[in-house]
Amino acid sequence: MRKKLIAANWKMYKTPSEALNFVEAFLPLVAGHTRDEIALFPSITSLPTVIHRVRGSNVAAGAQSMHWADEGAYTGHTSATMLTAVGATHVLIGHSENRQYDNETDERINLKVKSALSHGLIPLLCVGEQKDERQCGKTEDVLVSQLAGALAGFPKEHADRLVIAYEPVWAIGTGLTATPETAEETHLMIRTHLEKHLGDVANEMRILYGGSVKPDNASALLNQPNIDGALVGGASLKPDSFAAIVKY
Description:
The chain is α/β, with parallel strands linked by helices. It has helices at residues 16-30, 47-54, 80-85, 96-101, 106-118, 131-135, 139-150, 180-198, 215-222, 239-246; strands spanning 5-9, 37-41, 59-63, 90-93, 122-127, 163-166, 206-209, 229-232.
């Protein structure tokens, strides 16, 4: 049985004090919740604050991105060694916004996934298609290409630690959501591809859904057999809203 992971991507929101206020309000709402894993992904300036406050609780904390090198002349970037030094346990890699705005390529994503795993972080590898790609019937081609590029030379012995987050780009922050049936179909497609390349361990890997997940649609999505959690954006910015998703 794959334990679901419910993750909050706060994107470029919340100062450290705002992040602390969120956690103070959120932790009592999910105290004792052990059915699912819970993780918060604040901005890098709020990450140490969140890590310190959730320590000892049932909530983990991770970063929204990272560089593949351990150190170097990479202004504005953060390495896996820096993340583990402050206590981060997870990291988002390949989010569509990083692909779009930061020109993140599959080759760079591949290096980041390998670096994260080598330093003991749990990477959430994001993949997803654009609206026109889905309308043209290219969803499978796009996802297979992204997975192949990101996982080239992937160490199979670490496969059970890798999390895939399927985020249809057309559903991120738009209010549009894939139907539970459509999302399930795409998740099964991803798992089938992973099984071809990684073997039976694909059945242990978690595939999250992200794309306008809200309290009122979380249950229908998360009760699909191949949807192993959610990567939540806007609805994760308020403690009661995100707690409702966690408790779907």
